[in-house]
């Protein structure tokens, strides 16, 4: 397809680009091994500081609670949402009403995160002033994170369900499974890769986010990204910040690779499920 | 007879609607409650006056929009128009850069063995899974004062000593392009993967140079993917907050920071809300414009609910 | 056939007997998919619903299975009204066109799914699954996933998954349509044997009239949501009620007729003698294989319905040859002749021949 | 499914473990400038009150105000606004009057810090620390710093080396520019503000302007050699002199005039734990604690009872301006109502 000369040229351009993509991250890692003041060479000094930094650990704990807590909830809401829209929506429905669910689902995806964050800031403020509930803090951050994750989970689950042979549902029904049993023994196992994928996506989105967290945070709800941002704004980049960055980058890359190789094995069965339908 | 017939269908349709609401209701209500209503409130604030301390008060007023247009207590000032054009320019440049980088990368991946491709694609997407703040500040290490790249730039007399390439506009554009590159690559890859190579083979006889062959036989086929990519990159880049904040050094404000300032540093909520409306209107116009263009050009396939 | 005798109330219902009464199903905004269908299916019968795609046969089948709710009418299975019985409680199992094998389960688990949902305990379930797998000769695939099976094997698994539940009725929705011709004819026979051996009621949906003829005890021909004719295979083929049935089940010569006497009628090809009482019938039909062809030099004497003509087309089909013969009046007749003689003995286009339409072989049909 | 349930179990465990650690303890939410309190003091207060202190940081009065606005006034218990901000927060109804009967240590304050102009009768605020804002520069790079604001605003005085100006709410910056232009630090005319704003806008366009960076972060950038000049708080410099991390840097109060300020402790109107907040304020007013605070911060203490225990740099000229310097130091006048709004719009236009 691609002539050999062009192929060489593409490699010649692309490998350096790949390198460039990782250079900033590599520099973060490199500088994280900076020595302690008045020492030379490389050391784990910054990591040692981290180990004894209570603020970092509580920020990490909050980040994890935020990511996992929001991802679990959004996985539940999003799975049901994707399932419902795929299975129970009147096919080919026309009119404005029929488009409302799609509009609702796409809004969080399209809305710039800044607008998202500020809207939540004002809304939580209003609710808090009126009722005393939902004061800015980890709680509001979790709510906001759930909100932007739900559509992604729903889309993932929906895409998986839409790709399945629709007669599978009839078949389960035919083989004495009622609605609940079909959901438990057919739909959940079939959609499980998508549910796990949606959950992972939720975690990733949560960890990636700064803007929305920033605007919905409150007293004592500093998460890792907010901590890093604050530290950079205050003191510039320090080896300690680089050490946190390195650990975050490393963890994400490792998890992504593990997930990639696991799902690659499992997907072979999944592809059959999608191909099984005729007509 | 027809009465019975109608009820049977109605009962079934009702049951279906109930199932729909039981399953998808919670998610939809959640999004409505925690995003649609809040953003409606935000947008509503734009039509209030602001008190001396920037809080929204009655009466309703168009003053926030006059402020957006540049009219303040100081008279007319082109500052906002500058910020607006600057944001468009930065986002546009970042989009161009990421598109220019995406083509060789996408065709490079396609020229590799089929089982290697997902992995190569993964390595492009991976940096975007680390945190926004981390991958953005990482560029400070590369472009900041005393960093190797800045040093080289200084030797070329591009920047004054000790100042570096970051913070500044160059760093912001670079950061935006880096952050949103995967959003360009993924749709472009999806459309390049379905490329009809017979057309390219046919074109090989017609066009003398490889560049013309690319332009006439390959490029039109990847256009749907490119357009999706442009939407996915340009829209978030236009309203981005973290990148200009960390890499811009407040030297050249972008619209995102301007809006955020109205809620953080120098509060003026109605003004900030009015700015938000203008930003969303432009974003929406861009979105609709590109969708129309995409549809005219044959359209890219997406998963749609 | 439209006269639905309420047999179920007169005789004790047999397990697997089905009674369909005035069933109608209308999808919003279109003509009825199934339009007031009445049908009695006997216990232990191999019954085929035959019709072109979109005729409503699949919808009818889905209503039997319980996937669709009729808008009107009643369905009784084994004498029980199915109105409030959902799909998962009916003693009916379906073999789907796409097989719909569960991709997350292996063959054994697929087959055992129904028993598991019914709450049959593991040892008992294992025993029954193994028995069915042995019967269907798929025991060696027990632990494979559906993805690793060939089309024919999947078909067997799908059938086994239905049979293992020992349902009153097995519904088969074009289960062979995805297979190649040879495998298909093998499986047709196998399916038929299986049904005879187990004695379950099989309802088979197909658009292929050969398949219907080969397998069925009785056939119901459907068109546009209505049952056109129901009857034993032989009847439906030999004595179609109307033009649609006649044409759907093979080739035929059909002419409008005007009775001229108790056993004669005028037709476009000339005066026809017809054995059956005319009773004001307006159409006549004869199957091509029922037409006799003679050399114009050897035309028998004193026979009714003899017409002279010229061969215009001869299509050699192995066992037989199909001829289009243009009669003197310009009308064409389709006729088959068995190739039971030396090859030279067949006619060539342009040759003059005579055709005989025996009065016994002419059937009267409605438009 | 197992995978998901493990994660769910883990998350629940994490979530439960978090609040369980401090269950039953009241929490004092302290909202304060970064690096402005000794962690040891927080520990000893926690021990004394049997409560948990949650510290959250800000970098400018503007940030503090914005957060209080956006619901913080019902979430934070103690905030630390600068003197000129107290009347503004009071006008906006964001802080509450203090019950002096709960503040027996109030008498420890030096009399000159009691009943200040910005807050009659100390109704809303209690002094925390005080200091000045001047210029810090790196003498290794800038050989001739001069003695005035020209180091920041005159391109001829520093044509090459990177420098920053604080972002904040703009009062110091406009004040400094006004002083440089000869209007005096406390300029209040619209035309003077606009002229000052124009000067900063021009400064912003200089090639060696490295951005808007608030005082404390700027000090840290100075330490790492990223920039060569900035506005700074005297105590920030005292702090890094003290720990030896910025020995080579120099600080001065420009001749045209500079700011003297008092940072104060105040309680937001709807603070969840006002009793605890008063307890905290009284705790800081204690002679020993006041000394500990200043010894950590290296900012001057308004606490007369603490003075004996102050050590090191605190006695130096840096933190104790000479009478001659005192002549040119001014308290920023609070801005109220329409003036506040006008000033904000001017500062916003500078940032654009």
Could you characterize what this model shows?
The complex is a heterotetramer of chains A (279), B (305), C (367) and D (352). With 279 residues, chain A is mostly helical. Chain A has eleven helices and no strands. The longest helix of chain A has 37 residues, at 239-275. Chain A starts with a helix and ends with a helix. Chain B has helices at 2-45, 63-69, 79-110, 117-125, 132-143, 148-155, 169-193, 197-206, 210-238, 242-247, 255-261, 269-296; strands at residues 48-50, 56-60, 71-72, 75-76. Chain B has two domains: 2-66, no CATH class; 79-296, MetI-like (MetI-like fold, Orthogonal Bundle), CATH 1.10.3720. Chain C folds into two domains: 43-62 and 89-247, P-loop containing nucleotide triphosphate hydrolases (Rossmann fold, 3-Layer(aba) Sandwich), CATH 3.40.50; 253-365, OB fold (Dihydrolipoamide Acetyltransferase, E2P) (Beta Barrel), CATH 2.40.50. In chain C, the strands form five sheets. Chain C has a six-stranded mixed β-sheet with strand order 6-7-8-3-9-10, sandwiched between helices. Chain C has a five-stranded antiparallel β-sheet with strand order 16-20-17-18-19, with no helix packed on it. The chains are: A mainly alpha (279), B mainly alpha (305), C alpha+beta (367), D alpha/beta (352). The interface between B and D is large, with 35 and 44 residues.
Give a nutshell description of this structure.
By secondary structure, chain B is mainly alpha-helical.
What does the secondary structure layout of this molecule look like, with pairings?
The complex is a heterotetramer of chains A (279), B (305), C (367) and D (352).
Chain B: H1 2-45, E1 48-50, E2 56-60, H2 63-69, E3 71-72, E4 75-76, H3 79-110, H4 117-125, H5 132-143, H6 148-155, H7 169-193, H8 197-206, H9 210-238, H10 242-247, H11 255-261, H12 269-296
Antiparallel strand pairs in B: 1-2, 3-4
Chain C: H1 7-10, E1 18-25, E2 34-41, E3 46-50, H2 57-65, E4 72-77, E5 80-81, E6 92-95, H3 107-118, H4 122-135, H5 151-163, E7 169-173, H6 181-198, E8 201-206, H7 209-215, E9 218-223, E10 226-232, H8 233-238, H9 243-248, E11 253-256, E12 258-261, E13 264-267, E14 270-273, E15 283-286, E16 291-295, E17 306-316, E18 320-327, E19 332-338, E20 352-357, E21 363-365
Parallel strand pairs in C: 3-8, 3-9, 6-7, 7-8
Antiparallel strand pairs in C: 1-2, 1-4, 4-5, 9-10, 11-15, 12-13, 13-14, 15-21, 16-20, 17-18, 17-20, 18-19
Helix pairs in contact in C: 3-4, 3-5
Chain D: H1 2-20, E1 27-33, H2 39-49, E2 52-58, H3 61-69, E3 78-79, H4 86-91, E4 126-137, H5 150-153, E5 163-165, H6 171-181, H7 190-205, E6 209-212, H8 215-223, E7 229-233, H9 234-242, E8 250-252, E9 258-265, H10 274-285, H11 287-297, H12 323-328, E10 329-330, H13 338-351
Parallel strand pairs in D: 1-2, 1-3, 5-6, 9-10
Antiparallel strand pairs in D: 4-7, 4-8, 4-9
Helix pairs in contact in D: 6-7, 7-13
């Amino acid at each position: 397809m691609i002539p050999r000369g062009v192929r060489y040229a593409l490699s010649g351009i692309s490998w350096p680009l790949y390198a460039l993509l990782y250079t900033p991250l590599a520099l973060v890692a490199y500088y994280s091994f900076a020595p302690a003041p008045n020492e030379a060479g490389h050391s784990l000094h910054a990591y040692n500081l981290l180990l004894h930094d209570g603020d970092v650990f509580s920020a990490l704990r909050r980040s994890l609670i935020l990511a996992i807590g929001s991802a679990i909830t959004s996985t539940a809401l999003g799975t049901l949402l994707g399932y419902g829209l795929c299975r129970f929506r009147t096919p080919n429905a026309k009119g404005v009403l029929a488009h409302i669910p799609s509009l609702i689902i796409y809004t969080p995806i399209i809305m710039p995160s800044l607008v998202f964050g500020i809207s939540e800031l004002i809304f939580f403020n209003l609710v808090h002033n009126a009722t005393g509930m939902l004061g800015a803090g980890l709680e509001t951050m979790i709510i906001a994170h759930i909100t932007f994750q739900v559509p992604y989970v729903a889309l993932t689950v929906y895409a998986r369900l839409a790709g399945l042979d629709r007669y599978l549902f009839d078949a389960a029904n035919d083989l004495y499974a009622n609605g609940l049993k079909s959901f438990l023994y057919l739909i959940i196992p079939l959609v499980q890769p998508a549910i796990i994928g949606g959950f992972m996506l939720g975690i990733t989105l949560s960890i990636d986010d700064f803007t929305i967290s920033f605007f919905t945070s409150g007293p004592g709800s500093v998460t890792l990204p907010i901590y890093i941002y604050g530290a950079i704004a205050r003191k510039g980049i320090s080896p300690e910040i680089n050490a946190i960055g390195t650990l975050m980058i490393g963890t994400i890359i490792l998890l992504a690779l593990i997930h990639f190789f696991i799902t690659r094995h499992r997907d072979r069965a999944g592809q059959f499920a999608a191909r099984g339908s005729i007509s | 007879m027809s009465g019975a017939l109608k009820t049977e269908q109605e009962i079934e349709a009702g049951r279906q609607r109930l199932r729909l609401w039981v399953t998808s209701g919670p998610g939809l209500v959640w999004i409505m409650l925690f995003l649609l209503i809040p953003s409606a409130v935000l947008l509503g604030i734009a039509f209030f006056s602001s008190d001396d301390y920037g809080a929204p008060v009655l009466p309703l007023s168009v003053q926030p929009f006059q402020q957006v247009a540049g009219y303040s207590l100081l008279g007319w000032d082109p500052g906002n128009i500058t910020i607006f054009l600057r944001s468009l320019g930065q986002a546009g440049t970042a989009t161009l850069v990421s598109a220019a980088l995406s083509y060789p990368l996408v065709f490079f991946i396609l020229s590799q063995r089929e089982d290697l491709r997902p992995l190569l694609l993964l390595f492009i997407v991976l940096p975007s899974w680390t945190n926004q703040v981390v991958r953005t500040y990482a560029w400070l290490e590369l472009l900041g004062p005393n960093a190797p790249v800045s040093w080289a730039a200084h030797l070329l007399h591009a920047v004054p000593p000790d100042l570096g390439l970051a913070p500044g506009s160059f760093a912001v554009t670079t950061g935006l392009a880096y952050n949103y590159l995967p959003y360009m690559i993924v749709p472009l890859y999806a459309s390049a993967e379905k490329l009809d190579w017979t057309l390219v083979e046919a074109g090989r006889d017609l066009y003398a140079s490889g560049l013309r062959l690319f332009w006439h036989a390959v490029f039109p086929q990847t256009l749907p993917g490119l357009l999706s990519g442009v939407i996915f990159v340009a829209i978030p880049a236009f309203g981005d907050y973290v990148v200009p904040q960390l890499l811009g050094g407040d030297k050249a404000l972008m619209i995102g920071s301007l809006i955020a300032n109205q809620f953080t540093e120098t509060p003026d909520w109605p003004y900030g809300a009015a700015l938000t409306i203008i930003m969303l209107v432009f974003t929406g116009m861009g979105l609709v414009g590109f969708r129309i263009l995409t549809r005219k050009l044959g359209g890219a396939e997406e998963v749609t609910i | 056939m439209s006269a639905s005798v309420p047999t179920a109330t007169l005789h004790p219902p047999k397990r697997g007997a089905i009674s369909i009464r005035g069933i109608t199903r209308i999808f919003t905004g279109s003509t009825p998919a199934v339009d007031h269908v009445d049908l009695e299916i006997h216990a232990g019968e191999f019954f085929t619903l035959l019709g072109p795609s979109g005729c409503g046969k699949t919808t009818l089948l889905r209503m039997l299975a319980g996937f669709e709710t009729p808008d009107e009418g009643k369905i009784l299975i084994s004498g029980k009204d199915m109105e409030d019985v959902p799909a998962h409680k009916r003693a009916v199992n379906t073999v789907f066109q796409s097989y719909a094998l569960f991709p997350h389960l292996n063959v054994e688990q697929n087959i055992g799914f129904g028993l598991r949902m019914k709450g049959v305990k593991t040892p008992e379930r294992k025993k029954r699954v193994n028995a069915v797998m042995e019967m269907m000769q798929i025991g060696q695939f027990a632990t494979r996933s559906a993805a690793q099976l060939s089309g024919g094997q999947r078909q067997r698994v799908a059938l086994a998954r239905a049979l293992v539940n020992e349902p009153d009725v097995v519904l088969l929705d074009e289960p062979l349509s995805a297979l190649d011709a040879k495998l298909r004819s093998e499986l047709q026979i196998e399916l038929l044997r299986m049904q005879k051996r187990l004695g379950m009621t099989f309802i088979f949906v197909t658009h292929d009239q050969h398949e219907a003829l080969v397998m069925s005890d009785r056939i119901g021909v459907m068109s546009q949501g209505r049952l056109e004719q129901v009857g034993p295979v032989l009847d439906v083929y030999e004595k179609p009620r109307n033009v649609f049935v006649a044409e759907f089940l093979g080739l035929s010569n059909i002419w409008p007729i005007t009775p001229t006497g108790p056993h004669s009628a005028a037709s476009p090809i000339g005066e026809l003698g017809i054995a059956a009482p005319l009773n004001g019938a307006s159409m006549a039909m004869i199957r091509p294989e029922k037409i006799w062809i003679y050399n114009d030099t050897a035309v028998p004497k004193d026979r009714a319905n003899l017409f002279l003509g010229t061969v215009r087309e001869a299509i050699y089909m192995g066992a037989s040859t199909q001829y289009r013969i243009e009669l003197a009046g310009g009308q064409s007749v389709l006729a088959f002749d068995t190739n039971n003689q030396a090859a030279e003995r067949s006619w060539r286009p342009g040759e003059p021949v005579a055709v005989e339409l025996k009065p016994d072989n002419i059937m009267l049909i409605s438009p | 499914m197992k995978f998901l349930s493990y994660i769910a179990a883990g998350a629940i465990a994490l979530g439960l473990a978090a609040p369980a650690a401090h269950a039953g303890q009241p929490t004092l939410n302290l909202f304060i400038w970064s690096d402005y309190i000794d962690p040891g003091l927080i520990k000893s207060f926690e021990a004394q009150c049997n409560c948990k202190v949650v510290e959250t940081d800000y970098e400018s009065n503007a940030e503090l105000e914005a957060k209080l606005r956006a619901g913080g006034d019902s979430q934070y218990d103690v905030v630390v606004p600068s003197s000129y901000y107290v009347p503004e927060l009071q006008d906006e109804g964001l802080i509450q009057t203090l019950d002096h009967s709960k503040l027996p240590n109030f008498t420890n304050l030096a009399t000159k810090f009691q009943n200040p102009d910005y807050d009659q009768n100390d109704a809303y605020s209690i002094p925390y620390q005080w200091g000045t804002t001047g210029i810090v520069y790196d003498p290794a790079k800038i050989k001739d710093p001069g003695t005035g604001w020209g180091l920041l605003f005159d391109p001829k005085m520093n044509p090459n080396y990177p420098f920053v100006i604080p972002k904040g709410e703009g009062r110091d910056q406009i004040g400094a520019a006004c002083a440089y232009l000869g209007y005096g630090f406390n300029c209040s005319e619209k035309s003077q503000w606009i002229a000052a704003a124009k000067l900063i806008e021009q400064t912003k366009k200089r090639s060696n302007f490295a951005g808007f960076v608030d005082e404390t972060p700027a000090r840290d950038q100075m330490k790492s050699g990223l920039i060569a000049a900035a506005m700074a708080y005297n105590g920030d410099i005292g702090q890094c002199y003290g720990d030896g991390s910025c020995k080579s840097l120099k600080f001065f109060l420009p001749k045209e005039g500079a700011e003297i300020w008092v940072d104060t402790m105040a309680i937001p109107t709807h603070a969840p734990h006002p009793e605890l907040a008063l307890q905290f304020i009284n705790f800081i007013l204690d002679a020993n604690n006041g000394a500990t605070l200043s010894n950590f911060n290296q900012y001057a203490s308004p606490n007369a009872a603490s003075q004996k225990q102050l050590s090191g740099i605190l006695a130096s000229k840096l933190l104790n301006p000479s009478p001659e310097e005192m002549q040119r130091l001014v308290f920023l006048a609070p801005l109220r109502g329409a003036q506040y709004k006008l000033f904000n719009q001017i500062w916003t236009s500078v940032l654009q």
